[in-house]
Amino acid sequence: MIDKNIDQLKRLKLRKNAEMRLKVYGILSISLALIMLSTLMISIGLSGYSALQQAYVKLEINVDSKKVLDEKGGFSNQKALLVNWDGIVSNSFITNFPEITKRSEKRSLRALMSSNAGYELRQYFQKNPDDLDENITIWLSASDDFDQYMKGRFNTSVDEKDRRLSNQQLKWIDFLAMEKISKLKFNTSFFVNADSREPESAGILGAVVGSTLTLTITILFALPLAVMASVYLEYFAKPGRLTDFIEVNINNLAAIPSIVFGLLGLSVFLGFFGLPRSAPLVGGLCLGLMTIPTIIIASRASIRAVPPSIKDAALALGASRMQAALHHVLPLAAPGILTGTIIGMAQALGETAPLLMIGMVAFIIETPDSFTSAATAMPVQIFMWSDSAERAFYERSSLAILFLVGFLIIMNSLAVFLRRKFEKKW
Amino acid sequence: MVDKKNNLKFKTKNVSVFYGSKQAINKISLDIEEKQITALIGPSGCGKSTFLRCLNRMNDVISNCSVNGKILLDGNNIYSDEIDPVLLRAKVGMVFQKPNPFPKSIFENIAYGPRIHGIGNNRAELTDLVHHSLEQAGLIDEVKDRLDDIATGLSGGQQQRICIARAIAVNPDVILMDEPCSALDPIATAKIEELMSSLSKSYTIIIVTHSMQQAGRVSQKTAFFHMGDLIEYGETPKIFTQPDQQKTQDYITGRFG
Q1: Which of A255, B86, B126, B174 gets the highest tally of CB atoms within 10 A of its CB?
Q2: How far apart are CA B27 and CA B29, in angstroms?
């Protein structure tokens, strides 16, 4: 039995209260963070989910094969250039409204189809030349305003003359929707296209490929350099002024605003080495420079966390310093290095500023196919879309943000998974 | 009775070690005989571990450490430029205070040394070598069925014997032991001591120990260090029964330390 006097009991109570308070503060701050995060994600999600669908219009079309096929019966690009695809689309579209005869009305009716619909039609026949001369039914993209109206994102309370769609046009859309001639369908073009001036044909694929190519360069460039640098600093560098100086500077590098690395890339990679503009190669090198300090700091910490007894054991067996580092210390430090690397990569994935400096902010409608072809990256794509006037780009940039966040979550989970997998138990 | 003179393995002359400006040991001259167990005893911080680490140049790893004097291994100065510490350490193995097996399989632990020195080029030779080393370390019966298990999963005593087997595997002449039993229980300690006695038939063993009983049990020769100086060096029974120096007498009777 422990004797307690009143004084002790009082102090015990105070201590317990303090502990309780600390716990409550902790829970409060965590819930606040969670609320903020979920508000952010929900608001982006709500504005972005509708970009998963896109308004399409059903058209009945018959194209004469003589206009597009060459003598051998293959699709001729030269002949196809001369075909008025847009005209075919609008003529077919206008047949839905036989009562309309005035030119001005026809023009505003035509404006409801995407200006890329003719191109889509051409692409279709290029892929399916057998359908020429047949009466086919095809779904082609409607214009972005049409699309927004069908999704209920078109503000009709604005005065008619300030709107992009007139009351007449809205009536036509209502009619098409009622007759099931136009429908919201899954937005495939968002996932298979690169950027476009028309929101209905703009897609994220170009940016995803651009980011992937860029990050490939980043990791190939940054990881070996950073790991070698940290092994050198931990195992070979003689302590002294120079080593201290290097160490301080590496820590400073990690804190340098990323746009500075863009300026460096502009003057060194583009200016001095003359590498191509807007290329994932240069973007990757810039982001690599930015990531190196992060990986060095993480690698040194995890190398230092390996018990020195392991190094001693290897050295005492007659291993050289390099052998001790490569055979024993690095494998044990690998999970930490990996985590640092993936965190650095995630940081690089979300980085816009350095890419702006080296021209990866260009409008590029082709999905990049090499490390030197012009490309853009996901955050830059979001930046460009959110800068566009069309309402339909707004939901697309939200969806692209969700995409980017999804990528980050995948990368971070990979980091956690790899760390769990390679962590050795002592 | 013929005075049996053993060959000398190590000859050290005026060895001093400095950590920066701090002197750790002062002009130690000590000759170590072949195929015997020599114990280094003394209170904490007396420089016995420092001296031990000079013998395989493990002090080189410590950046501000400098070693003066001469250390001859079989007549060759180990601190001369011609001697590569990497090759020296293959001749002079070391076992540390805390068992430090690599977090790899038992087999890989033993096979690592031979591999980096190019001993045992094929799998069969290597397997033989691993078995032989484990046998010498008296561990073969305990682990022969689980050579692929992670060595860090063994008990402390077994881990330490893995470390000894690992040192033996590169076929050294000398094994340095830096308080090899201080992290072990009495039963494991007894096993290691037994092992040392049997190993001393083929290897020269130098052991640093805090336990005077241990020095008395296993060693043929004992050196007593105090404050960086070698106070007394001689046959173990003599050091423990009639030491020449008063300090030695005080230490072994427990008056300080």
Answers
A1: B174
A2: 6
